[in-house]
Amino acid sequence: MQFAHNSVVWFRQDLRIHDHPALTQACEFAQLHDSNLTAIYFVTPKQWAEHDVAAIQIDFIERHIEQLNQRLAAIGIELTVVNLSTFDDILPWLKAYCAEHHIGQIFAANESEFNERQRDIKLINAGIPLRLIEQDCVLATGTVNNLSGQMYKVFTPFSKAWKKIASSQPIVPLGIPAFRQPIAAPSLSRFNCDEFYPQRVTSELWAAGEDCARKQLKQFIENDIADYQQYRDLPAIDGTSKLSPYLAIGVLSPRQCVAGILFYYPDALVNDASPAKTWLNELIWREFYRHLLVAFPKLSRSQSFNELGQFIQWRNDNDEFQAWCQGQTGYPIIDAAMRQLNQTGWMHNRLRMVVASFLTKHLLIDWRWGEQYFRQHLIDGDLAANNGGWQWSAGTGCDAQPYFRVFNPMTQSSKFDPDASFIKHFVPEVADWSLKHIHEPHLKAHHINSMADLFSERAKQEKAYPQPIVEHGFARKRALEVLGALKRG
To answer: Residue 364 carries which DSSP code?
Structure first.
């Protein structure tokens, strides 16, 4: 009987060859045994649809799989794309593949999400030689705990502990493993997703490729990170890193991001006055939410972190939800943000908080509805960050915004888009309005109503934009009453 020494590296949400511990270990294993190493990627469209993965993100993934194919071929590794349906189909496929190709080891990155972890447990219990490597976080999940050995439930102490641990060890990304002579890149199977994703959505607005992502990271840290705190909340300004789509599918690793910061700002982990502090904290928030997914699996299963969330009496008005989805709430800042999402597959982070607060608090619609809609449309869709952000906004999450904090959309509009240039771009219906009326649309609605008897053509055009769906003061009072279910004690 032939001894199984051949190996496989299984790519998941880690579509890169730089700083890829599973790939590096797979290459070392193959060199040690002078054996064959191949790579696989599973396309599981039914599973993706059940997980609400956006069509635009699938297009982005497919573009990067082709890039990955070329990069792997350059180091002598052949990639195979396997079209299945769900995670359940992976076990019989791997069993047959391992037997046919004498596979002794499969190397893959550990994942934080509940279904993915259950899939891996099932494979290992069935005898699949799967070796899981922690690489999706700088500090492995479960390693940043309080003095009682428990996961932190508040971000600030988690962040302090994270920085202390991270500053005590080298954070050095792995290079590309030197493996074998280049081979011709194989022709890959096209993603067979049409049954579950009949509408193709292009991601061409986003450059594809590991080199592009690494270059963008470098340029951001060199030129923009020091101004990030000042400009990150202004949607009309390109003041964010725009790296989230690459982090979400693993074209960049968080370790590359932190190492990049430390190259230019060596004291960033220990100096609270570092110009890099604000963006570093965003990376730590990412880690916090991933650690939470592992510590509290219910977060992957649409459950509120705060158990009192089950007592909230959501209104869940479907017509109002559709108005929010389509950017027709009558609040220009809300509608501009939602239209940005629908048109580009991305939304500015400040506006994610504003529209989430509006949906859950002004309209009293269950945060799960918004979480799902975001996931179905975001190119940077990511369960940990998306769930964490939505529960933070709704007041049901870990270290969440208090239930009684209700963002005022008029204040958010005038503060963060003062000249309304972002709003005017996505809501051209209000381009001729005064700034006061754009930021306080209830004043405009009142003016239109008082002039309606004139039936002028201009009034008709203005009325094409909806009046505010709900009055802020009334909505705030209603939210405080209903979300009072979250009071402790």
So the answer is: -
